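Input sequence (164 aa), recorded before submission:
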Amino acid sequence: MSLWKFFKRKTDEELFDRAVNEKNHTMTIVYGSRLLAKKKLESRRLISYTESLFKLNRKKEAVKILDKYAQEKLENGYFSEAISMLKKAMKFNPECIQTARLLSKAYESKNLLFEAFNVLINLFLTLKDANKNTADAQRLIDSFLKRHPVPSFLEAYDIRIAAG
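Predicted structure, token format:
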């Protein structure tokens, strides 16, 4: 029986898990890509895969993958999983407007309005600090405030924009 295990071909899942445990990012990406192509890369492995992409300086690809899977989770009502993925994506690229929009939408779906608003404000401030165009972030904030005209949000927005 043990001889059979020795010669048995390992599955991509087993090889992926081994690469993750050994912190072999190159092989993690190889096996993760195979699993992704087969649509067998579940959430826990997806995070390891994107972390390896990030470590090998492929952060745009990591963010794009996380955004795509988070969008699917949002559409299927798995808001907590989407939030987890999107928070990770925001760590990889805090200036990504698409990720911030999705994360804010996920928080909004869970009725966590303060968190949703805060994501948009932080995006605006991050872009402003980097001397990048803030027009898209401002549009997202304005749209949010039209849907949720909470006085404290309006006041916080005015104060932060004036101070920034």
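Checked by second reader. Residues 59-75 form the longest helix (17 residues).
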